[in-house]
Design goal:
By secondary structure, the chain is an alpha/beta fold. It has a single domain (4-185), classed as Dihydrofolate Reductase, subunit A (3-Layer(aba) Sandwich), CATH 3.40.430.10. It is 23% helix and 24% strand. The protein has five helices and eight strands, in the order βαβααββαβαβββ. An eight-stranded mixed sheet has the order 4-3-2-5-1-6-8-7, with helices on both faces. β7 and β8 (186-192) form a beta hairpin. The protein is globular and about 65 Å long.
Length: 205
């Protein structure tokens, strides 16, 4: 069975909205787009290379897909050419309510993400990498369909914005790998570890 792997930039308070630039996603009046840029050092770049140089297919929500589709097909002559070539040729699974054709090559629409991803995981093929797409992430974690999570946690508090896990997810994670970049980005890889275990520091009477 192939794995579903999540890789995401998040702020210290869990916001993942618009890391790449000011105009990326201004929904809700978000004013801090591009918050990743000042901290993107060689260690962060290498961590992203580790994620993006593996064999994978992409799983994207519709908004993330539209952002990617507007950029990556035109980026094969840019400094990000290698990533562009991989993104452009790989299969893109796209969670969308629309029935309109998807213009980016090798894109496949999914209209029931939970059922469809559960089915796709059982098929032969490479692992499935989620980029961005908080709505998709929240649906999949609720149904225990994400197998590995790499969070790049940036030393910035954004206050408002779309959060990766939302308010409804509750569960334990097991840390499998961790490093910190010179700019202060903490790069942690986790696997799901079941329900939250609780205890108490109160002394028995």
């Amino acid at each position: 069975m192939r794995k579903v792997i999540l890789g995401s930039f998040v702020s210290a308070d869990g916001v993942m909205q618009a890391p790449g630039g000011p105009s990326e996603d201004t929904v809700g009046g978000f004013q801090h787009g591009g918050w990743v840029f000042p901290y993107f050092d060689e260690t962060v770049g290498a961590a992203m290379d580790d994620i993006l140089t593996q064999e994978y297919e992409l799983l994207l929500g519709r908004k993330t897909y539209d952002i990617f589709a507007a950029h990556w097909p035109r980026a094969e002559d840019s400094p990000d050419a290698e990533t562009a070539k991989v993104f452009n040729r790989t299969r893109k699974w796209v969670v969308t309510s629309s029935r309109d054709p998807l213009a980016w090559n090798n894109s496949v629409a999914l209209h029931d993400p939970v059922a469809d991803v559960a089915r796709i995981k059982k098929e032969d093929g490479p692992n499935i990498l989620i980029q961005g797409s908080s709505t998709v992430v929240q649906a999949l974690v609720a149904h225990e369909l994400i197998d590995e999570i790499t969070l790049l946690i940036f030393p910035v508090v954004l206050g408002k914005g779309k959060r990766l896990f939302g308010d409804d997810f509750a569960g334990a994670l097991k840390l499998t790998k961790s490093q910190t970049s010179p700019s202060g980005v903490v790069i942690n890889t986790y696997v799901p570890a079941g329900k939250i275990q609780v205890g108490s520091f109160e002394l028995p009477e």
